[in-house]
Write a structure and sequence with these properties.
mainly beta; single chain; three-stranded antiparallel β-sheet; four-stranded antiparallel β-sheet
């Protein structure tokens, strides 16, 4: 688990699935396509895992 102090955007570079774990919430499994974008608010404590056998590439940018 980790916490981002700033809001952040993830730009998906390769197709894949990620599982998001956040305290007090059910795990969320999300299928992403290359070129899609995700956003998370600041101060969210979470963990992200790739359940697949193929690496998934993401560029994550924290917004100031």
């Amino acid at each position: 688990m980790h916490t981002h102090d700033l809001p952040h955007v993830g730009v998906i570079l390769s197709d894949g699935t990620l599982v998001f774990t956040e305290r007090g919430k059910a795990d969320e499994t999300v299928r992403f396509s290359a070129g899609s974008v995700g956003y998370r608010e600041a101060n969210v404590t979470h963990q992200v895992a790739n359940p697949g056998k193929t690496p998934m590439r993401v560029i994550e940018v924290e917004l100031k």
